[in-house]
Specification:
The first copy, chain A, contains six helices and three strands, in the order ααβααββαα. Chain A has about 140 residues and is mostly helical. The longest helix of chain A has 24 residues. The N and C termini of chain A lie far apart (about 40 Å). The mean pLDDT of chain A is about 95. Chain A binds a DNA duplex (30 and 30 nucleotides) through helix 4.
DNA sequence: TGTTGTTAGTTACAAAATCAACCATTAACT
DNA sequence: AGTTAATGGTTGATTTTGTAACTAACAACA
C-alpha cells in the first residue's frame, strides 16, 4: 500500500512474540490437553503446586499473575480430576490450602519431564549463549 | 516439592514467551480496543490490508496463519465499521477481494504509528544489537 | 454490639475463541 | 451432461475467557 513504509508486521515485537509463543507452546499443549484434558491455566496451577508445594489460590495468583477467577476454575477442574485437594485453614476459614494428590504429583512429574525435553528441542536451534540471551531479553520484556 | 529439581517455570520457554507476549501487547491492545473497539484478529486483518493492499480472505490466512473462521468474523466486523469493502471476483464468484476504505486506511495509519512508537518504547530496554538478536531468535522460534 | 471495610474465593452473565458442519461455486473425471 | 471432489467463505453449537457482582469470614473501630 505504502511503498516506502518501513513498518513490517513480522518485525512488530508484540506480533512476533505472539507468533513465537504460539509456535513454541503448540506441541506441549497437545500433551497436556490430549493426555490429561487440561487447559493452559490448569497445567500452570498444577506446576505451581508441583514446584512450590502447598499454596493458597491467592498465592498462586501472586506468583503466576493469573486472575483469581481463572485460578478458581482451574482448581475446580483439577479437583474434579482428583489432582489436588483442598484443606480449610482453621484459623482463618476463608483460606484454603491446595496440595497435589498422588496422581496429581504423578501428572506433574510426567508433564515436567515432557516440558523439559520440549524445551531442549526448542533450544536445539540455539547456542547456549544465544539461548541465555534470548531468555534474559524475554524476562526483561515480561517485566520481571 | 522436589528440592533438587532443576526445572523452573520462569525458565520454561513457552511460559516465558507467553508472559512476554502478553506484557508486550497489553498497551497496544488498549488502543485498538479502546479507540476502535477492535479485537486482536481485527487489527491483524486491518494491518495485512494496509500493508499489502487488496487481498482475499484466503490470502490473509496464508500470510497470517489465522484460521478462516477467525478471518471471516474479523472481516465482517471490519466491514461493519466501514473499514473495508468486499468486491466479488467475476471470474470466480467464490472469491472476494478485500480493500480498505478511506477511514479504514486512516485507522490503519493511526494504529501503525502507535505500533511504531509502542515498539520503540519496548525496545528502549535494549541496545540495537540486543534487539536484533532477540528478533532473530523469535523468528527462528516462530518457524519463519 | 453494630457498622464499615477488607480479603478469599465463587458464581453469573456477556464476550470471544474453537470446531464442525454447512452453502455456493468451480474443477475434475467418467 | 452427471457425479464427485475441492475450494472460498459462512454459520451454529459448544467451550473458554473476561468482567462484575456476589457470599462468607475476618478486622477495625465506634
Amino acid at each position: 500500500m505504502d511503498e516506502k513504509d518501513a513498518f513490517q508486521l513480522q518485525d512488530f515485537l508484540p506480533y512476533l512474540l505472539n507468533q513465537a509463543a504460539e509456535a513454541a507452546s503448540l506441541s506441549f499443549q497437545k500433551v497436556y490437553k490430549g493426555r490429561y484434558g487440561m487447559l493452559r491455566t490448569e497445567w500452570r496451577v498444577l506446576f505451581h503446586l508441583g514446584l512450590y508445594g502447598r499454596l493458597t489460590a491467592t498465592e498462586i495468583g501472586e506468583r503466576s499473575g493469573l486472575h483469581k477467577t481463572k485460578i478458581s476454575r482451574a482448581v475446580a477442574a483439577l479437583e474434579g480430576k482428583r489432582f489436588i485437594v483442598r484443606e480449610r485453614d482453621d484459623e482463618d476459614r476463608r483460606v484454603e490450602y491446595l496440595t497435589l494428590t498422588t496422581s496429581g504429583l504423578a501428572a506433574y512429574k510426567d508433564l515436567r519431564a515432557i516440558a523439559q525435553s520440549h524445551e531442549e528441542r526448542l533450544l536445539k536451534a540455539f547456542t547456549p549463549e544465544e539461548a541465555a540471551l534470548l531468555k534474559r531479553g524475554l524476562k526483561r520484556l515480561a517485566g520481571a
